[in-house]
């Protein structure tokens, strides 16, 4: 007697629930995209072939009907089980947030796309609607409670980096992608050496060369409208090329974009919309012909590393330390050549777009507010001489300049959505709220930087709050544009050195204003959130100062 179709539907449904409760609900599966994807095709094909071979009639119609019934009932019950769990039983079920985001991160992704790839603003809107704790995914919370920043990112944090770090540059290895704390700590030691106080002093000369080059170009274009964001990007990128490979990309000199810059930016463009569903990124990279730019970026870095290994620069660069570790460090992990290639890409990505975004926003505010520009020029005229021996040291102490940099980082953090972390298995308690274990959490920098509970007159650009009016910084601990703790920015001092040096030089030597028809809103409204910011243009005029 033939088995009724209902029985097959029953089996499919049972398997659906069982695979959810026995497999998908446990642990991490973000790197299994390809296997799961293939299983969804191969298992039905295998089922079809088995029924055809061993079924009662051996007919194609029977085999395909039964396969369809099992597959459909499996799929429906799997997704129903997932949805039911996420809404009614998940440990985050009582946290507020839009219902569609509780179901699936695909809905977050589509929200990001429809709202112009500005996740930090999307999340900000959700916080205004739902409060300090917002469930932005089935297993994800965005938190603006000030206490969360230190607990999630601070020195003693028990949180670790989220799955996103495995996916975003798969299959690369690099310091910032490393989720294992012991391995991260061991690699971080090499980077810390490369950024010691002595090394930083050695890098001053390199920074100066590119600041000089930028000044020459601004001189040559004095009084003309130019895209400041693009020139700042050339500047930051040239310095990072010098740091990573011991040779710049010559973009300031040539005034044209190097191929690597567009490769990097095109490669990063997908990160914005795909961050909520980052498991798709490794899947894409395993498809031949897909994710071309990212693959080319890695290929370029591989070739450059090979070239860099052929010579020793006169003064050490970052790679002097990395190559030394590969050859001489007793820890064998540094022998893996993938570290050099991945860290090479990391120098470029981490060091260029962050600095560019900050410089661009500093000059947005200087062009918008002539009184801030004049006050900065006064400070510099009285305490600083461009090109002097003590130039870098003097600028460290320029209070107004440093206040301006802090304000730019507060209102326009270069990683505006914050950083994804996972809570420890026992969970954490933030402001009496228990955040369960193994939940993805983030503290959106852009929103927190604008909270009246953290800063007095939060929406205003007030450099003095950082020295003369400390009462205007209500929650000091939330200001972490470089992140904090063991995974905080290792290049912070180099970044600050560049920002101070180039800002001081320009303000001392040029008048700055918006070009006709420009008011800087394009920069604020059209830049996209791709983890760092993909900047829109901003046309400024730098005119040689009349003395
Ligand atoms: C305004 C300038 C900069 C800002 C705002 C900034 C910000 C940040 C932030 C927020 C992180 C944490 C990322 C995460 O956890 O996913 C980070 C990490 C990092 N940054 Fe920066 N950065 C800047 C400049 C630089 C520069 C010039 C370099 C030089 C190469 C650099 C190298 C790095 C590296 C290597 C990491 C990874 C550290 C680790 O995982 O231990 N950054 N940065």
UniProtKB/TrEMBL annotation:
Keywords: Heme, Iron, Membrane, Metal-binding, Monooxygenase, Oxidoreductase, Transmembrane, Transmembrane helix. Pfam families: p450 (PF00067). SUPFAM superfamilies: Cytochrome P450 (SSF48264). Coiled coil: none annotated. InterPro entries: Cyt_P450 (IPR001128), Cyt_P450_E_grp-I (IPR002401), Cyt_P450_sf (IPR036396), Cytochrome_P450_monoxygenase (IPR050121). The chain crosses the membrane at residues 6-24, 36-54, 66-88. The keyword Oxidoreductase applies. It is found in: Membrane. Its main location: membrane. Heme binds at residue 489. GO terms for cellular component: membrane. Its cofactor is heme. CDD domains: CYP67-like (cd11061). One of its GO terms (biological process) is verruculogen biosynthetic process. GO terms for molecular function: heme binding; iron ion binding; monooxygenase activity; oxidoreductase activity, acting on paired donors, with incorporation or reduction of molecular oxygen. PANTHER family: CYTOCHROME P450, P450, PUTATIVE (EUROFUNG)-RELATED. Belongs to the cytochrome P450 family. This is Cytochrome P450 monooxygenase-like protein.
């Amino acid at each position: 007697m033939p088995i009724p179709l209902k029985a097959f539907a029953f089996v499919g449904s049972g398997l659906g629930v069982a695979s959810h409760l026995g497999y998908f609900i446990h642990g991490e599966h973000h790197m299994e995209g390809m296997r799961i994807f293939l299983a969804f095709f191969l298992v039905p094909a295998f089922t079809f072939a088995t029924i055809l071979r061993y079924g009662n009639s051996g007919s194609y119609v029977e085999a395909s009907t039964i396969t369809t019934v099992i597959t459909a009932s499996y799929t429906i019950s799997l997704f129903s089980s997932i949805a039911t769990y996420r809404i009614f039983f998940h440990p985050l079920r009582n946290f507020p947030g839009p219902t569609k985001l509780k179901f699936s991160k695909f809905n977050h992704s589509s929200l990001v796309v429809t709202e112009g790839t500005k996740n930090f603003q999307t999340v900000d809107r959700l916080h205004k609607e739902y409060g300090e704790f917002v469930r932005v995914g089935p297993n994800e919370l965005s938190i603006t409670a000030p206490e969360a920043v230190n607990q999630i990112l601070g020195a003693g944090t028990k949180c670790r980096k989220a799955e996103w770090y495995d996916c975003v540059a798969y299959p690369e290895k690099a310091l910032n992608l490393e989720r294992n704390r012991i391995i991260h700590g061991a690699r971080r030691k090499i980077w810390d050496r490369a950024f010691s106080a002595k090394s930083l002093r050695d890098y001053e000369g390199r920074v100066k060369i590119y600041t000089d080059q930028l000044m020459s170009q601004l001189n040559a274009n004095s009084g003309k409208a130019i895209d400041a964001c693009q020139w700042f990007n050339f500047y930051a990128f040239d310095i990072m090329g010098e740091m990573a490979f011991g040779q710049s990309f010559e973009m300031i000199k040539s005034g044209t974009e190097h191929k690597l810059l567009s490769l990097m930016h095109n490669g990063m463009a997908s990160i914005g919309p795909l961050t909520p569903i980052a498991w798709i990124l490794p899947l894409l990279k395993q498809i031949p012909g897909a994710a071309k730019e990212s693959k080319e970026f890695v290929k370029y870095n591989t070739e450059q590393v090979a070239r860099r290994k052929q010579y020793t620069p006169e003064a050490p660069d970052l790679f002097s330390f990395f190559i030394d570790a590969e050859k001489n460090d007793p820890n064998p992990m540094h022998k893996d050549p993938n570290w050099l290639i991945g860290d090479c890409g990391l120098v470029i990505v981490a060091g260029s777009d962050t600095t560019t975004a900050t410089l661009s926003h500093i000059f947005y505010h200087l062009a918008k507010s002539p009184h801030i520009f004049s006050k900065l020029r006064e400070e510099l005229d009285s305490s600083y001489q461009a090109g002097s021996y003590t130039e870098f040291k003097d600028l460290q102490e320029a209070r107004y300049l440093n206040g301006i940099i802090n304000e730019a980082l507060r209102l326009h953090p270069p990683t505006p959505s914050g950083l994804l972390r996972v809570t420890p298995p026992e969970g954490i308690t933030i402001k009496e709220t228990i955040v369960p274990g193994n939940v993805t959490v983030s503290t959106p920098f852009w929103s927190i930087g604008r909270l009246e509970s953290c800063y007095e007159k939060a929406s205003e650009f007030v450099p003095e709050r950082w020295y003369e009016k400390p009462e205007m910084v209500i929650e000091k601990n939330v200001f972490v544009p470089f992140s904090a703790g063991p995974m905080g920015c290792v290049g912070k001092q180099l970044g600050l050195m560049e920002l101070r040096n180039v800002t001081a030089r320009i303000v001392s030597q040029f008048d700055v204003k918006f070009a006709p028809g420009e008011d800087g809103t394009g920069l604020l409204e059209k830049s996209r959130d791709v983890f760092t910011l993909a900047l829109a243009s901003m046309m400024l005029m730098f005119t040689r100062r009349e003395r």
